[in-house]
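Notes, p. 3: input format for complexes.
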Amino acid sequence: MKEPHIPSINLSRLLREGGSTDARDEILEYIALQEERIPLEGPAKWKVSVTRLEGEGGQEFWLSGEIAGNAMLECRRCLTPTPTPVRAHFQYLLRYEAGLQQLEVIEEGEEEILLFGHPDLDLVPLLSEAFALELPYTTLCKEDCKGLCPVCGANLNEVDCGHHPKPQTKLGAELSRLLGDLD
Ligand SMILES: [Zn+2]
Ligand SMILES: [Zn+2]
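Output follows (183 residues plus zinc ion):
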């Protein structure tokens, strides 16, 4: 068993000497957002590299990274958890502000700057946000998923429950045809 640990990158050496550093690892089981978790099938792999920028007193850095994994999303028709590939790239301008407790985003002119106060930079918020932004709105377990029976809720990919709901009115029939086309 691999010990779960918090994704981070240590920038102590960069703060002292400049240059670049990188880190890579995997996130297991789920991507944690503030209010929810996105379950994963298999590990989500990430890598991040950081370079100190010249000037600005050596307190500014350019970070770029990517994360890729399979999110388990519910099929929009039958609700079966379905592995859905997600790949995200992200970039940040970072500035070190000793003593700052939490990551903070500020705007200076046109630029967004991410402030951090600990040389061991917590990557969880960056990785999670990037991953969540690339999630598709919906997914299908397969192109021709038959969905759930509106009468008994059976998964029609797995069983034929024998219900054949018929729209009662001409308008109903027309509506379900239109909705069927949209689906
Ligand atoms: Zn489905
Ligand atoms: Zn049924």
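The longest strand covers residues 37-52.
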